[in-house]
Amino acid sequence: MPLIDDFEARFLLGVPAMDCTHREFVELLNRMAEPGNAAFVYLYQDLINHTRAHFANEDALMRQSAFPASAEHTAEHARILGELDALRSRLGAGGRIALARAFVLEQLPAWFALHAVTMDSALAAHVKAGMKVGS
After folding, report:
1. DSSP string, 36-91
2. Is 93 exposed, middle or buried (CB count within 10 Å of its CB: 0-12, 13-18, 19+)?
3. Sign of the dihedral defined by the CA atoms of residues 63, 43, 110, 91, in that order
4. CA–CA distances in Å: residue 69 to residues 40, 61, 79
5. CATH assignment, 14-32+41-134
6. Residue 51: how many CA atoms within 13 Å on its side-chain side?
7. What is the pLDDT of residues 72-97, one digit of tens each?
8. How far apart are the C-alpha atoms of 97 and 115, rounded to whole Å?
9. pLDDT of residue 1
10. Exposed site from 29, 75, 86, 109, fewest CB < 10 Å?
């Protein structure tokens, strides 16, 4: 069963780069719903790599568009990356997969849903408004 199953209806923001990255994030998260331990560890590293690139792209978009709430948005990115990194270090130290799996299954879907429809939605609206002004 997917962790996030209604992507189209909820998370398309109208900025193609953001929409593509969000779709990739949701697909990766959904692949992590039921794998065995070895596959989970592999996918977890993919999740970290994707999330770093995802956030770096959004951070660049915030700088380029002079997004007024960039400090808060970037701080939220740093918080999530910090949690992912902390759990990754526990995976390597004795294979404590249960903690990372619980975070992925129980925390990330709800976090992403809230983040996408609040912070990312505000960023997308700001970017789209800037594109209309510059047209």
Report:
1. -HHHHHHHHHHHHHHHHHHHHHHHHHHHHHT-TTHHHHHHHHHHHHHHHHHHHHHH
2. exposed
3. negative
4. 34, 12, 16
5. 1.20.120.50
6. 23
7. 999 999 999 999 999 998 886 566 89
8. 25
9. 79
10. 75
